[in-house]
Design brief:
The protein has 173 residues and is of the alpha+beta class. It is 28% helix and 32% strand. It starts with a strand and ends with a strand.
Length: 173
């Protein structure tokens, strides 16, 4: 699988040994809630989730800080369940709360956009977030995404609360 390098980050395949690092940020009450998943309660839970969401996924990457070698997040470009078009993908990401506000997510998303458009030859990349997730909206806008609209009552979160999705897209230049 591909590795992508930026100025400060290495985007690399996720391996089973990343469970501790992923659990470390996934147990935060503020990380998962913004992406629709419940905070992880145990390392075993993280390992189970990794099996279906991260391991052996072609374009899902761990975000590692070059300076320290620490894995502190994930970013992926996967089929968009809301679009029936092979030339589109959806981007998603989560990083540890202590890394918020440093531009790391923006840097990782920009690298994945380049990869998506230049190597995968995609026509459009989408992203969705809850209307209250101002941090995610900020990342998307900095990366050049355009607000497309709000999909009402789009997603039921793990706790049964139903939220709208703010929809964003960026097209190949």
């Amino acid at each position: 699988m591909k590795m992508i390098e930026t100025e400060r980050l290495i985007l690399r395949p996720i391996v089973a040994n990343d469970a501790e690092a992923i659990f470390e940020y996934s147990q935060s009450k503020n990380v998962g809630i913004n992406a629709g998943w419940k905070p992880h309660e145990s390392i075993e839970e993280t390992r189970e989730i990794m099996k279906c969401a991260f391991l052996d996924q072609e374009y899902v990457f761990g975000i590692e800080l070059k300076e320290t070698g620490k894995l502190f997040g994930t970013v992926g470009i996967i089929p968009d369940p809301k679009r029936q078009n092979n030339k589109t993908r959806m981007i998603g990401y989560a990083i540890g709360e202590e890394y918020w506000g440093n531009g790391f997510t923006t840097e990782a998303v920009r690298a994945l956009l380049r990869f998506g458009f230049e190597e995968l030859k995609l026509d459009l990349i989408s992203a969705y977030c809850y209307p209250y997730n101002e941090g995610s909206k900020s990342v998307l806008i900095k990366c050049g995404f355009t607000y497309e609209g709000t999909l009402r009552l789009a997603e039921e979160r793990y706790d049964g609360v139903v939220f709208d999705n703010d929809c964003y897209f960026i097209m190949r230049q």
